[in-house]
Amino acid sequence: MRPTVTATETVRRPRYETGQVGTLARDWLALLKPRVISLVVFTGAAGMMMAPVRIDPFTALVSIFCICLASGAAGAINMWYDRDIDAVMQRTITRPVPAGRIPEGEALAYGVGLSCLSVCLMWMATNTLAAAILAFSIFFYSVIYTMWLKRSTPQNIVIGGAAGAFPPMIGWAAATGHMAVMPVVMFGIVFFWTPPHFWSLALYACKDYGRAGIPMLPVVHGARHTRWQIFLYTIVLLAISLVPSVMHLSGWFYTCVALALGLGFIGCAIRVLLEPQDKDGVSLKGDKAARVSFRFSLAYLFFLFCGLLGDHFLRLWGF
Ligand code: HEM
Ligand SMILES: CC(C)=CCC/C(C)=C/CC/C(C)=C/COP(=O)(O)OP(=O)(O)O
Fold first, then answer.
1. Of the candidates 132, 159, 177, which is a domain's last residue?
2. What residues make up the domain containing 208?
């Protein structure tokens, strides 16, 4: 059942400029959440490059394009379904569907159409395993996370985070046609990265989520509890990120990168924990530490996977 949104505060709705082709194209692009796609695609490409086989450049490009399409399609379905809550959150009110610039039916058709296209193309270009995981990721993000977990439990992104962790496995499967330990470890890294990534943002977007009636962790259990959870997850993340080193899947270069980034992320989490706050844990400093932690999370994942790739190629070239 679709919960009723309780809008208790009014939010500013921007003026819509009509008749501009560029503006319209930007809206269709915005439906795909392009900045999120960039990192999702990078993790998928990293999974593909870590695979111990040669994949021909054309197939590699098509596979990466399919991950890009699928991630965007899932984002469009997410924005179609969430149009009611996006319309009451300051952060999302300008999105094309709640702002009325793209009709909801067209957004849904776009998301479903691109989903089918991405899976079919992946299947034709690579193999059944890669296409199946791709289809499952779309289903997991748009149905399991968006339609079910997001509105029903504060553990929504812990479980739902699996959707965003599949791309390295998809990349690997596209290159090899089977699974192995390395892509599963990469899945684990993204899986445990997602909670500190998202909860850092949730700390400063808490009012928005509360207004929309979404049970995000800080809304349900408060900011103090969320700060501790971020800290604990960064510790678990450091441990998981060292699994490739412990299992001798990576060498000294990756170990150094993972240690430095992991300690950096824990440092951010400690700053979030110690930030001046009121008795409920609400920041007295405009959530500065949480904003830094969110930005760091993005850099963390990018550079950690760069570390894995760097190590892989260093070893391949005999260093
Ligand atoms: C279910 C898991 C996830 C949740 C709930 C989540 C949540 C969010 C939210 C709410 C934002 C802010 C978006 C906005 O303001 O429009 C964001 C930004 C971002 N997320 Fe995540 N995220 C998840 C997983 C991922 C994954 C797996 C990746 C990539 C591997 C990722 C990459 C990014 C990037 C790059 C941004 C910045 C976008 C920008 O600059 O506008 N996220 N995330
Ligand atoms: C290949 C494939 C299908 C990949 C999917 C990748 C994936 C799960 C990305 C999640 C990214 C994201 C911004 C989630 C936020 O959703 P939200 O609805 O909580 O955030 P919002 O409030 O900004 O809409």
1. 177
2. 180-319
